[in-house]
Amino acid sequence: MESSRQILIVDDDDSSRALLTRMLSSAGYKCRETDNAADALKLVREQKPEVLLLDFRMPEMDGTDVLKQLRSDPNPDIAQLPVIMLTGHGESEVQCLQAGADDFVIKPIEIEVLRARIEAQLRVHSLRLQLQQQNKVLEEWRRNHERDLAAARATQQSLIPPKKPQILGWEIATWYRPVIEVGGDIYGWLPITKERWLFWIADATGHGASAALLTTLAKLLFHHGHEQHDEPAAIMDAVNNDLRGIFAGRSFMSAMCIALDPQTGKASVVGAGHPPLLVTRFGRGTEAIPSSAPPLGLMEQSQFAATDLELNPGDAFTLYTDGLFGTAMTGRLRSTPTQLAGMINPFAASADALLQLMLKTAGRDSDDSQTDDVTAVVVRRSN
Fold first, then answer.
1. Which single residue of 93, 113, 159, 309 has CA 20 to 30 Å from 141?
2. Domains and CATH numbers, the chain
3. Would you say the pTM of this structure is higher than 0.85?
4. Neighbouring-strand partners of residue 106
């Protein structure tokens, strides 16, 4: 015996309605009945049944008219009410379905057929309700996730230096664009001594929130290393040891830093698994200085060797992440640092001009071509 579930029977024929009520009540359903469409709409809104049995032909308002009103009801529970149309031979089953009926049964009605149709609609409706509930849960999860991402984005944006340092005789241009709300790139600058500045950049493994959290740690570690040391190799070694001690090699990041003496233009560069530093010589082209060590946090004992260089008026160096050379979505071939170095105009008049030229040359000057976080810092000695 089925558990008592409510069925509303709408049929203007008294004998047909009474027969249906008796058969369905005997089968365990709780039945209500009415002989007209207007009353049916009222009963549905007062106490929604689980299934509506609706006669196709009725005076004044027929079954299709009732269906149209139900399906357009602002209450989704009413609009999605399972409806089985009761039709006679020769009547349009297609018209019933087009009007919004979930199923139909042809008169004279066989009770076993009707019960099977009712149970099928109850199962479908139950699955629909479960799906709607799951969608509500997913929607709530999505809203919470978006709030978390917004908070993470705001937090990460606060880590990006809001203002460029004012260094007499030098220009600085920056570009930071994560591929999603949060990314794995981070950069910064710190005064090492009264005479020198440290410029650094890092690219954490992965994307999203986990990479963003790693960038937060990266900034803390670089600041901590800078407090203890004044040479880039020693700073990178300190960051590597701290990162290795925290994650034991499970997470790592590529990084590069350069210690610059603005007065003399002399600098020391140290890279760890990071794309080469690009040094643009005014009027003479661009050269690449590769990393000398593996990524930070990967190896317990790494040797960080510094490369010395001197920047003359008009020269510039560029720190960047590998997103600058990610696979293009616009049909362009993937660039490499060496190719980019060969295409850069060495007569760029400013740091901003040089940065925009690099982005355009690498195909990263629009959102359409971005498939990875893209970050770049150009530091140029004024002419």
1. 159
2. 6-132 (3.40.50.2300), 160-381 (3.60.40.10)
3. no
4. 87
